[in-house]
Amino acid sequence: MAKNDVKLLGAWPSPYVLRARVALNIKSVKYEFLEETMAPKSELLLQSNPVYKKIPVLIHGDKPICESLVIVQYIDEAWTSGPSILPSDPCDRAIHRFWAAYLDETWFPNMRGLLTAQGEERKPLMDKLSEGTVLLEEAFGKCSKGKAFFGGGGIGYLDLAFGCFLGWLRVSEKITGMKLLDEAKTPRLVKWAESFCADAAVKGTMPETDKLLEFAKVLAAKMRGALLRIKLICVNNFSVDHGSS
Q: What are phi and psi of 39, to 5 degrees?
């Protein structure tokens, strides 16, 4: 299939976009990467994902596919000639999907909270992240079956779900000065992270930590400013309501 038949709308700092990029690399699919600035969002993005208006969006021919893990599953099913991404066993597939949902719904939101947290606000978030990372260490032992990846001998579905957060994990470690992956608590994940980042499908696609850190600082300042504006609006509204009662 020609490269221009496969397009990916995304932005380089996004771990969700990275999932799709690595999945396409695993399958050796040539694609056109269309960088979104998000300010404003492109017409192509708004037309391709009218429900959430978010990246990533994979366009295969003229068909848009949205949401990162849905995209990964689609890539695995649409291009069957490359290595399989999802496990063949139904129980293993269910376990991988369970932990992928945990990462998206619980683990990463705590990490994202570190961007706006300051001082003592960071400790409870880091504690939750550390606890969750230990759980993932245990899950790796069961899923990998003694091999290098959650998916066994090669990068699989859960590897993509977790591994594409590694850039942001390193950023959080630099921001807080606290290690999430260390030899004492998570020795298997330390080796796994090295293997994931060294894989040919990932190298050259994973954002550089320092570049991502600079982006995170700008993003954090914007987020804190937005939160402050919301707080001021709430205070003003309360003052008006309270004064009229």
A: -145, 85
CA 58, 59, 65, 70 torsion-angle sign: negative
Provide the pLDDT for residue 145: 94
Give pLDDT, residue 115.
77
Question: Sheet containing 57-60: which strands, arranged edge to edge?
Answer: 32-35, 6-10, 57-60, 63-66
* Tokens 């499908």 found at: 201
Angle between helices 122-144 and 187-198 (to 10 degrees): 80
CA dist 204 and 24 (Å) reads 14
Report the distance separating Cα 173 and Cα 207, nearest Å: 15
**One-letter amino acid identity for 66?**
C
Rounded to whole angstroms, the Cα distance separating 213 from 36 reads 19
The half-sphere exposure of 128 on its side-chain side, counting CA atoms within 13 A, is: 16
Q: How is residue 100 written in tokens?
A: 């992928």
pLDDT at 238: 47
Q: What is the pTM of this model?
A: 0.89
Contacts of 200 (CB under 8 A, 6+ apart): 25
How many C-beta neighbours within 10 Å does residue 221 have? Answer: 12
Concatenating the DSSP letter of every residue in 148-193 gives SBTTBSS--HHHHHHHTTHHHHHHHHHHHS--SS-TTT-HHHHHHH
DSSP summary character for residue 3: G
229 burial (CB, 10 Å; 0-12 / 13-18 / 19+) is exposed
**Measured between alpha carbons, how far is 182 from 137 in angstroms, rounded to an integer?**
11
